[in-house]
Amino acid sequence: MPPAFEVLSLQEQGAVAFVDVRWPAPHGSLSERLLADLEALVTHLEDEGRASIVVFRDLSAGTTPAAAPKPEINQCRRWENLLVRIDRLAVVTIAVIDGTCERFCAQLAIACDHRVATARSEFYMPEVKEGYLPGMCTFRLTKFIGLARARRVIFTGARFKAAQATEWGLVDVCCDAGDAERALKGLIDELSPVDRTVIQLARRLLNESFATSFEDAIGNFLAAQHRCFGKGGEK
Amino acid sequence: MKLLPRIVSIGTANPGRRYTQAELVSLFGAAMDRRIAMLFKNSHIESRFLCLPEPGPDGKIPTETPLQLAQKHRTNALWAGAKAIGAALEPAGLKPSDVDSFVCVTSTGFLCPSLTAWFIKELGFRADVHRADIVGMGCNGGLNGLQPVVNYCALNPQGVGLLLCVEVCTAAYVFDNTIRTAVVNSLFGDGAAAAVIATRDQAPGPKIHGFSSHIITDAIGAMRFDFDGEKQSFFLDRDIPYILGQNVDKPVDKLLGKFGLKRRDIKHWVIHSGGRKVIDSIKYCLNITAHDVRHTDGVLRDYGNLSSGSFLFSHKRLIDEGVAKPGEHIMMMTMGPGSTVECCLGEF
How many structural domains compose chain B? Predict the structure, then answer.
C-alpha cells in the first residue's frame, strides 16, 4: 500500500504511475512537507512500486509566480539525495509541463528521463540572479543542452520556451496546450514495454558515458549485460 | 542495551617488495604473448607486493621448487603476520598475551603445526588462547574467520579477539605460459591483515550485527586449486565474476531483511578486491556507485587481489578516511571458492 501523502497524489494504473504534486506557494519552491512526501513516494517506488513508468504531472505553474524564498541548505541536501534516488529508480520517469517550469519544478523535470511540454510552456531558472544555485541543474542541464547554452540560461536567468527546449533536446515532445494527454500517451506507447532492470542499467551506463573511458565502459557494459541476461537482484 | 563486539583496530603488512605491473610483465616473460601482456595491462592494478626470487641471467624469475614455495609461504606468512598483528594490537593498547581468541586464515600454504601455533610460540600469546586455523577457504575466508572471533567476544564480553588473514599468493604461482596461470599471476598479491575485536561501546570500527552466506554449488569448480603433478595451480573461471554478481543480492538482502534494512540504508560498502570484473559485476548487480567501491578499487590498484585479507585493507582505508559517523551501517562482502559470497553487517 502506498503511504498517505499530504501534498501529492499517486495513482497507479497498471504499468504507469501518475504523480500530481501540489507545490507550495510560491510555485516551484520547497517545503518540509513536500520533501517528506516525495521521499516517501520514492521509498514506495523503490520497495513496493509495480509501475515501470512514472509520470510527474503539474511540473509547472499557469502564471508567472512571485520570487521564492531561498531554500535551507539541509533542504538542498535532501532534495539532491531525492533526485539521485529518482535517477536510480528501475522505472522510466516522464515530466509533463504545461506552463512556467521553474526552480525545484524545473530541477525535478530535468532529472526525469523524458519531458513532454506544451508549446506555451517555458523554463526559468532565476536562482543565480537571486544569489544561489539552481541545484544540480548546473550538472544535468549541461549534458542536455551543452555548456554554452546552459551557462547562458543559468547566468542570465533568461526564460526559454518549449520550442527552444525541444530544439536543444531538453524536451522530447512539444505539443499544443490541449494535446498533452495524447502526446503523453504516444510517448508511453513508444517506451512500453519497460523492463525495469534493463532500463535501470541502460540509464546508468548512458549517464556514466560522459565520464568513463572506453576501457572502463566496456567492463561496465559486460557486467550490466550479464545482469540483464541473469536478471539478478533489483532494488 | 547489550553491547556488541566491535572492530577495534586493523593492522596490515606486506612481505617482499612492491613491483609495478609493468615491471612484472617483463619479469614474468609475459611480453612474449600479446594476450598475456594484455591481461597484465588491463588488470587495473598498478602495483603489488610480491615475494619473488631474484631474476636469473635472462632477466626472468627462475622456477621455484615445491619445497621452496612451501618455505616461502611459511617464512613470509610468519613475518607479515607478525607485523600485521603488531600493527593491529598496538593502537588498541594490547599485547599478544591479552588476546583470548585467535583465528588465522590462509589458503596459500599448508603447515602442521598450523600458523596459530607458530605465532603463539613466537609472539608470546598465552598458552590457553582459544585458536582456530581456517585453511583453504580462499578469498572469502576473512569473513568466515571473523565470525567465530565475533561469536567468542559476544559470548565473552570481556574477551579480546584477533583475526589474522595472511596470504603469500606468490607461494602458489605457477609459470607455464598459459592464460590460466597468467590470469592468476597478473592478479594476486602478498599481504597480511589483522583485526582486533572486542566488546566496547566505542571504537574506530563498527559493531557487528550479523553474518550471512550464500554458496553457489553449481559453480563449485569455478575457483579451485588443481594439482598439476608437482604444484598446486589455481584456476579462475572466466565467467565467475558474473555468476557471483547474479547471486550477490541473495545474502545481502537476506542479511539486511533480518535487521529491517534496505540497501539504501548501507552507507559504507567494504568489498573484496577480487579483480576488475568482480568489482564491476557487484557494482552493477547491487546498483551501488563507484564511490561506494572506492576503497575496493584503491586496494586492487595498489596491492592486487590479496585474497582473504583484502577486505580488511579496504576497511582500514575507510576507518583512516574518518568519514563514517555513529549509526551509519556498513556491509562487508567477500567472495571466493565454493563458489561463495559472505556478508557481514556492521554499524559505526
Answer: 2
